[in-house]
């Protein structure tokens, strides 16, 4: 009796295993991603003496948050590129952050960045040295001066909460980072597209997380709640890079207007 | 030679008349007074007096003898014979109008022997001679006269052409017609009719071939308010009529679109209420596909209708596209999705409705729903109710299974076959990986998909697609080729696609990978699917035409050039067609017709065939006509003859080699506008004759027309005096002297 039960159990288990194996084999083998080439890559821009992201862990963390929260793919090992390198035009997004004043861009760096912008690329300039009360650092001031040399025909304008970057994934009422800073982002808009975003909020500072999992920087004055909103802003910027002004389409407008009327969770 | 006497030409007419009058008075006096007298010699006095008066008259007139060779030239009369298709209308139990017309022309010729008749045919434009010499009753009508094939009966243009001609002006015009004229129209005023004869300053006589209307119900006229634009309701006004004693109070009018992929699609139906044999109904039709579309407007005729050919009209509407309406669905946001969206939005003529899946079930946004800008993906609404409103659907890296698209794949396949456009763009969720193999949608892709267990969905190795010969020659890729030449950027992998389907074309292929049949694996393929078209682009790296070294060198123009061609080809933009087809002249049923084929020079030596298929009868086998190859340097256009086609809607497809086709839809009608209203119009002919000073006759009447008299023309003329002037004067003097002597002898003074 015991032996026959064991035999039956064995047979049933074998059948289940075979069935599962067959199911696995029968399913079309999922295509592995076509590399990470089309994914969001917060490529760190090396220019004006900057040798890396001000918050070293921020770019990877940014991709990680994007992948966790959305359907967008992200490079979990972001790349970095020099402005004067021909490969600066190989992807549509660049991330420039720092605390110290930038050195004057060389002609080659200016030329490289102009080619990048001519193709429609987007640059986020994130002031990691911004003071807790939002005053820009030497980096923030010098970055504006140097970008003005690259794009002399335009000036930054304020982007308020009605701009699509505040609704590409999350509905946000203001910009926030490690510091609260101004409610708006500033941007250089060309051909109806945002091409340079200036953040006086140290978004990277809110994202940066050490290998142990601890956040590297306190967020002032709002703490973790503000940090969550900063991460959401980073996700929105990534989505803006990948979807452009998709959320401005008319078909979405009625939904967004209704949602905007609702209170937003702190 | 013809001889006669006449007075001398130097005498004015009044002098001759006065002389004759005086002579008559003198003769009267002589006869009345002198003969009464009883004196001796009265008769002698009268006789000598008569002689003297005659001699005096002769001395004044000095008669001459005129010898002349004369010709009688008949007045030039042009007979305008109506060659329009309405003359070919059949008439039950009676001779067709064309036969009556020809008999009338022959009868006129027989009766007008003194006139120089020139018989011409009129229809559309200037009249054409049917005979270059006077027509006699013995001549049979020419083939031109027998063929009543002109698409219009425009008498006004014919008369204007005669007025503008440098040839001898006619002295009268005779019009032989059934009166159903396009110009002058039914509502032409008397002044307008008078104006027709004003230029030529001649009377216009008219002969009506037909008296009674046939028993006929018909679609008389279809007019559209404005141009046809895809997706925009087009108002149609349909005039119907009954005549010839046919009783109809109401007629049901139906509008259908003839399609290649199945039964005609009902667009609208209405009921026309008739009064005095006429009625009108307003219909609104919406055509979803741009290009030449064939509409059938038909009535349900009452019993007793003798001309079924005009119970329906087949009309070609050239449907414009105000904007191309594209549904862009993406499975996840990537740089490739960004590039396509930005290109679509940058084109003002493209109207994009986009849905991107921004969050899957496994994602954790860490937020309440109201904190998210996400909306539900309205898959059911999009792929049922709204699907026909799109000109093209782009599925980009989109998996059919998780989002409920699977159940709509049959509808999407029907949409393509009915004329829609589909582009499937690659990615990790496309083609085999997206679960499309062995689905109805796979049947409308230009490539096969491997749906076997364990099939490989993608090749993740970097790849630079290779141009095929067809890709280099394809007009839709020529904008890209102009920008990048043969160079393409390295792409991050490709979807695994199968062999190209019949009728498809591979434009890019994998440089090393092959299909099961051993052919290079397609990366970019296009194909016709019924009425529609589809494209398979097995890459998600096309955005690198923008963001790459190649993109920087070409200012990123390659990406837009690629999609210009892809979407343009999908929409049948003539710039991207391998050739163009057009009818040389409108197609008339049962009459051979010609198609003009325009080809780019690169196709000069390709095997080419035109296939003509019925739209409204799928059981009728298609006709194939080979297009002759052109020699180098010859014209880019070739005309081919099609056999006589029955009345109906047709699609002609130009096949170059094995690839997709260029198509042209057209309609063949038996009578067209000319048969729409079969009623003759004697009154219009009568009014025309009356307004221009001519006469009206029925063909059955005596056709002795009041034509101008012939003119006499002298070719040779000799004038010889009967006697010199002095002889006439001497004779008059002698005669007067004798008369005086006679009077003196009789004792008279």
Structure description:
The complex is a heterodimer of chains A (266) and B (749). Chain A has one domain: Rossmann fold (3-Layer(aba) Sandwich). In chain A, 36% of the residues lie in helices and 13% in strands. Chain A has helices at 2-26, 58-69, 107-118, 138-150, 203-207, 223-243, 253-260; strands spanning 44-46, 80-82, 93-98, 122-127, 157-159, 185-190, 193-199. In chain A, helix 3 links the parallel strand 3 (93-98) and strand 4. In chain A, helix 2 (58-69) packs across helix 6. Chain B has 749 residues and is of the alpha/beta class. In chain B, the strands form 8 sheets. Chain B has an 8-stranded mixed sheet. A 6-stranded mixed sheet of chain B has the order 5-4-3-6-7-33. Chain B has 4 domains: 2-69 and 717-745; 75-212 and 680-709, Rossmann fold; 324-362 and 371-570, 3-Layer(aba) Sandwich (Rossmann fold); 576-669, Immunoglobulin-like, CATH 2.60.40. Chains A and B meet through helix 6 and helix 7 of A and helix 7, strand 16, strand 21 and helix 12 of B.
What is the count of β-strands of chain B? 34
CATH class of the largest domain in chain B: Alpha Beta
* Residue share in β-strands of chain B: 25-35%
The best one-word shape of chain A is elongated
Q: At CATH's second level, what is the architecture of the largest domain in chain B?
A: 3-Layer(aba) Sandwich
How many helices of chain B does DSSP assign? 16
Percent of residues of chain B in helical segments?
A: 10-25%
Strand content of chain A: 5-15%
- Fraction in helix of chain A: 25-40%
Task: Provide the gyration radius of chain A in Å.
Answer: 23 Å
- Number of separate strands of chain A: 7
Mean pLDDT over the residues of chain B: 89
**By CATH's scheme, which homologous superfamily of the largest domain in chain B applies?**
Class I glutamine amidotransferase (GATase) domain
Q: Which SSEs are present, and which pair or pack?
A:
The complex is a heterodimer of chains A (266) and B (749).
Chain A: H1 2-26, E1 44-46, H2 58-69, E2 80-82, E3 93-98, H3 107-118, E4 122-127, H4 138-150, E5 157-159, E6 185-190, E7 193-199, H5 203-207, H6 223-243, H7 253-260
Parallel strand pairs in A: 1-2, 3-4, 4-7
Antiparallel strand pairs in A: 5-6, 6-7
Helix pairs in contact in A: 2-6
Chain B: E1 2-6, H1 13-33, H2 42-61, E2 64-73, E3 76-82, H3 97-111, E4 116-122, E5 128-129, H4 143-146, H5 155-164, E6 172-177, H6 190-198, E7 204-208, E8 216-224, E9 234-243, E10 250-258, E11 265-273, E12 278-285, E13 291-299, E14 312-319, E15 324-330, H7 335-346, E16 350-356, H8 379-383, E17 392-396, H9 409-417, E18 421-425, E19 458-459, E20 466-467, H10 469-473, H11 478-484, E21 494-495, E22 504-514, E23 520-529, E24 532-537, H12 549-553, H13 557-570, E25 580-583, E26 587-588, E27 593-598, E28 608-614, E29 623-627, E30 637-642, E31 648-656, E32 661-669, H14 673-676, H15 682-692, E33 696-698, E34 711-721, H16 725-745
Parallel strand pairs in B: 3-4, 3-6, 6-7, 7-33, 15-16, 15-17, 17-18, 18-24, 26-32
Antiparallel strand pairs in B: 1-2, 2-34, 4-5, 8-9, 9-12, 10-11, 10-13, 13-14, 19-21, 20-22, 22-23, 23-24, 25-27, 27-30, 28-29, 28-31, 31-32
Helix pairs in contact in B: 1-2, 2-16, 6-15, 11-13
């Amino acid at each position: 009796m015991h032996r026959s039960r064991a035999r039956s159990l064995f047979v049933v288990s074998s059948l289940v295993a075979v069935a599962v194996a067959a199911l696995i084999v029968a399913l079309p083998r999922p295509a592995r991603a076509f590399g990470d080439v089309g994914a969001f890559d917060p490529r760190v821009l090396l220019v004006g003496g900057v040798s890396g992201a001000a918050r070293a862990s921020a770019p990877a963390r940014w991709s990680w948050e994007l992948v966790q929260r959305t359907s967008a793919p992200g490079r979990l090992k972001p790349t970095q590129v020099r402005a004067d390198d021909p490969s600066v035009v190989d992807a549509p997004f660049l991330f420039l952050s720092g605390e110290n004043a930038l050195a004057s861009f060389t002609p080659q760096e200016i030329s490289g960045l102009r080619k990048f912008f001519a193709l429609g690329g987007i640059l986020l300039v994130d002031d990691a040295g911004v003071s807790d009360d939002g005053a820009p650092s030497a980096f923030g001031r010098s970055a504006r001066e140097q970008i003005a040399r690259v794009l002399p025909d335009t000036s930054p304008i304020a982007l308020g909460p009605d701009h699509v970057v505040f609704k590409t994934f999350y509905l946000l009422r203001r910009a926030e980072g490690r510091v609260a800073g101004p409610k708006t982002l500033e941007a250089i808009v060309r051909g109806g597209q945002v091409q340079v975003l200036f953040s006086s909020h140290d978004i990277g500072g809110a994202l940066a997380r050490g290998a142990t999992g601890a956040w590297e920087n306190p967020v002032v004055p709002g703490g973790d709640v503000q940090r969550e909103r900063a991460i959401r802003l980073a996700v929105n910027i990534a989505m803006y890079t990948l979807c452009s002004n998709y959320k401005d389409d008319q078909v979405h407008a009625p939904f967004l207007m209704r949602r905007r009327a609702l209170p937003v969770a702190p | 030679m013809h001889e006669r006497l006449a007075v001398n030409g130097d005498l004015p007419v009044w002098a001759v008349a006065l002389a004759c009058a005086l002579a008559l008075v003198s003769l009267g006096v002589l006869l009345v007074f002198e003969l009464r007298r009883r004196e001796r010699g009265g008769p002698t006095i009268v006789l000598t007096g008569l002689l003297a008066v005659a001699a005096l008259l002769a001395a004044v007139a000095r008669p001459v003898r005129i010898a002349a060779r004369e010709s009688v030239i008949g007045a030039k009369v042009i007979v305008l014979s109506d060659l329009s298709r309405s003359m070919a209308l059949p008439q039950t139990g009676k001779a067709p109008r064309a036969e009556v017309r020809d008999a009338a022309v022959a009868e006129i010729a027989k009766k007008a022997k003194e006139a120089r008749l020139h018989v011409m045919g009129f229809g559309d434009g200037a009249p054409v001679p049917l005979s270059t010499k006077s027509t006699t009753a013995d001549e049979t009508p020419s083939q031109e006269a027998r063929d009543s094939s002109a698409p219009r009966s425009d008498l006004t243009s014919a008369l204007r052409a005669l007025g503008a001609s440098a040839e001898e002006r006619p002295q009268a015009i005779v019009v032989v017609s059934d009166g159903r004229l396009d110009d002058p129209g039914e509502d032409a005023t008397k002044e307008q009719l008078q104006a027709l004869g004003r230029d030529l300053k001649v009377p216009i006589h008219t002969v009506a071939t037909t008296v009674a209307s046939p028993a006929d119900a018909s679609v008389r006229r279809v007019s559209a308010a404005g141009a046809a634009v895809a997706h925009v309701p087009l108002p149609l006004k349909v005039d119907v009529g009954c005549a010839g004693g046919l009783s109809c109070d109401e007629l049901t009018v139906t509008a259908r679109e003839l399609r290649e992929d199945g039964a005609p699609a009902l667009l609208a139906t209405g009921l026309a209420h008739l009064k005095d044999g006429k009625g009108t109904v307003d219909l609104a039709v919406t055509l979803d596909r741009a290009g030449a579309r064939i509409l059938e407007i038909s009535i349900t005729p009452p019993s007793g209708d003798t001309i079924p050919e005009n119970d329906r009209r087949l009309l070609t509407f050239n449907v414009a596209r105000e904007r191309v309406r594209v549904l862009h669905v993406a499975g996840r946001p990537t740089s490739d999705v960004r590039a396509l969206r930005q290109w679509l939005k940058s084109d003002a003529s493209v109207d994009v409705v986009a849905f991107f899946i921004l969050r899957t079930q496994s994602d954790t946004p860490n937020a309440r729903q109201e904190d998210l800008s996400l909306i539900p993906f309205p898959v059911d609404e999009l792929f049922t109710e709204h699907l026909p409103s799109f000109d093209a659907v782009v599925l980009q890296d989109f998996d059919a299974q998780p989002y409920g698209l699977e159940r709509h794949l049959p509808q999407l396949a029907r949409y393509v076959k009915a004329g829609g456009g589909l582009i499937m763009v690659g990615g990790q969720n496309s083609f085999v990986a997206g679960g499309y193999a062995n689905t109805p949608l796979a049947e409308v892709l230009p490539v096969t998909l491997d749906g076997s267990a364990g099939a490989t969905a993608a090749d993740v190795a970097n790849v630079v697609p290779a141009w095929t010969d067809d890709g280099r020659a394809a007009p839709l890729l020529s904008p890209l080729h102009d920008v990048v030449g043969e160079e393409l950027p390295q792409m991050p992998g490709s979807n695994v696609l199968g062999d190209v389907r019949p009728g498809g074309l591979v434009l890019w292929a994998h440089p090393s990978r092959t299909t099961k049949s051993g052919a290079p694996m397609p990366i970019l393929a296009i194909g016709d699917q019924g009425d529609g078209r589809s494209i398979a682009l097995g890459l998600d790296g096309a955005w690198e035409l923008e963001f790459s070294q190649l993109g920087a060198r070409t200012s990123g123009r390659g990406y837009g050039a690629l999609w210009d061609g892809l979407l343009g080809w999908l929409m049948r933009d003539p710039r991207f067609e391998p050739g163009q087809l057009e009818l040389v002249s409108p197609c008339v049923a049962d009459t051979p017709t010609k198609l003009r084929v325009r080809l780019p020079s690169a196709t000069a030596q390709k095997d080419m065939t035109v296939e003509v298929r019925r739209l409204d009868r799928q059981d009728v086998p298609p006709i194939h006509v080979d297009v002759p190859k052109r020699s180098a340097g010859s014209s880019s256009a070739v005309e081919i003859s099609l056999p006589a086609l029955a009345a109906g809607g047709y699609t002609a497809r130009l096949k170059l080699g094995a690839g997709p086709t260029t198509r042209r839809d057209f309609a063949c009608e038996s009578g067209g506008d000319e048969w729409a209203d079969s009623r003759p119009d004697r009154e219009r002919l009568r009014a025309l004759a009356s307004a221009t000073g001519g006469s009206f006759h029925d063909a059955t009447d005596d056709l002795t027309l009041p034509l101008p008299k012939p003119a006499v023309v002298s070719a040779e003329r000799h004038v010889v005096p009967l006697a010199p002037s002095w002889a006439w004067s001497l004779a008059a003097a002698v005669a007067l002297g004798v008369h005086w002597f006679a009077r003196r002898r009789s004792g008279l003074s």
